[in-house]
Amino acid sequence: MTGDAGDPLGWVAEELGRLDREGLRRPTRVCRTLPGGRVEIDGRELWNFGSNDYLGLASRTVPVAPTPRGASALPSGATASPAVVGRSPEIAELERTIAEFEGTEDAVVFPTGYAANLGTVSALTGPGDVVFLERDCHACLVDGAKLGGGKLRVWRRAGPRPKGSDGFDTRIPVAQAKLEHALRKAANTRRRWIVADGVFSMDGDVAPVPALLALAEKHDAVVILDEAHATGVYGDAGRGVAERFGVPPDHPRLIRTGTLSKAVGTAGGFVSGSRGLCDYLRHAAKSHIFSTALPPAAAAAAAANLRWIASPKGVAARERLKDSAAYVGRRVRMCLGIGRVLGSDGSPILPILFDSPGAAVAASATLTDAGFFVPAIRPPTVPRGTSRLRISFSAAQLDDAVGELTNVLCFALKDAA
């Protein structure tokens, strides 16, 4: 579509019309986060089962007095890139806090999680490399790999079980064997990188980290693991999926990235690792060098929330989150069938599959009428034929709300799912 001579952007209206016809156009909402796991959307207050505020920290008021400045208020902007004069005392303290939290020598803070992955992957990979991207990797990892200039190869984890399946998933060893075959074929390339999400945000399952590291060791590769949906949620200390599997934070073949905008409840992204890695990224990651730094107020809030996550209160919140998610997952699988409900046991993300985008949207509307916000996820965010409700849990949600949501899902959606 090229538009007409009078309106070179006339094709935009045609594209929007196509999205309308296919049931794929997303609504533009005005949303206000409320305490206690609730949200106001276009003036209506609902239970919020659609956010990534996994520990309920986004609405937490953070006292800013105990900052490196000792001030009662902090600037709203950083004024420049970290490479110029934007690395405030609050960012320096945040990087120290992240490194301590993650158990690494150093950390680098980026303006967003997207920027952290984009900058890290594009800075580390290059011509002559092969980057093995899991099919469902977040878009920022894919974009970073494209910018890096290496050859891209797509691999698939076993992923969610097909509809109607149960028991052990026999596809797991097959999927890993295919990745190993691809790594073997790339033996003579400059460098090999295996890239994956720690928790896959649309399916709710976790990456097979030990198997990936074993392949990396065998074939001289490095794993880049995006812990965006796992930081603060998985592991005894809340470090993520790698910690859950017992992988030491200084593993030489593992690079972990994360975000501060999900369980941490603020804004920004980060990479944790050795001093050498972090110093290199400060010099080579363009999304770090050419972006204004994270505002001091946001950096101070992130550091305070990370300390909270590491405290006994944070441990209790993780347990509460896991218990709520596991309870609903068990009940809904019994009601709707195991093949229609994705996600790992206890994952804070619980997707329910539908046959069409329209059915998913209708199910979301049914839940809204019952007082719950659960978004419908449709193509192109997910593959065609896999539209879904994506339920996200938070430690802030009350037990009564979790129980009532379960009842609505089991009874109102049983025929539609």
Low-confidence stretches: 160-170
| Beta-strand residue percentage | 15-25%
Shape: globular
CATH superfamily of the largest domain: Type I PLP-dependent aspartate aminotransferase-like (Major domain)
User: Which CATH architecture of the largest domain?
Assistant: 3-Layer(aba) Sandwich
Radius of gyration: 22 Å
What's the tally of helices? 13
Helix content: 25-40%
Catalytic activity: 6-carboxyhexanoyl-[ACP] + L-alanine + H(+) = (8S)-8-amino-7-oxononanoate + holo-[ACP] + CO2
Pfam families: Aminotran_1_2
Keywords: Acyltransferase, Biotin biosynthesis, Pyridoxal phosphate, Transferase
InterPro entries: Aminotrans_II_pyridoxalP_BS, Aminotransferase_I/II_large, AON_synthase_class-II, PyrdxlP-dep_Trfase, PyrdxlP-dep_Trfase_major, PyrdxlP-dep_Trfase_small
Structure description:
The chain folds into 2 domains: 222 residues, Type I PLP-dependent aspartate aminotransferase-like (Major domain) (Aspartate Aminotransferase, domain 2); 102 residues, Aspartate Aminotransferase, domain 1 (Alpha-Beta Complex). Helices cover 38% and strands 16% of the residues. α11 packs parallel to α13. The protein contains 13 helices and 14 strands. By secondary structure, the protein is α/β, with parallel strands linked by helices. Homodimer. Its EC number is 2.3.1.47. It catalyses: 6-carboxyhexanoyl-[ACP] + L-alanine + H(+) = (8S)-8-amino-7-oxononanoate + holo-[ACP] + CO2. Pathway: Cofactor biosynthesis; biotin biosynthesis.
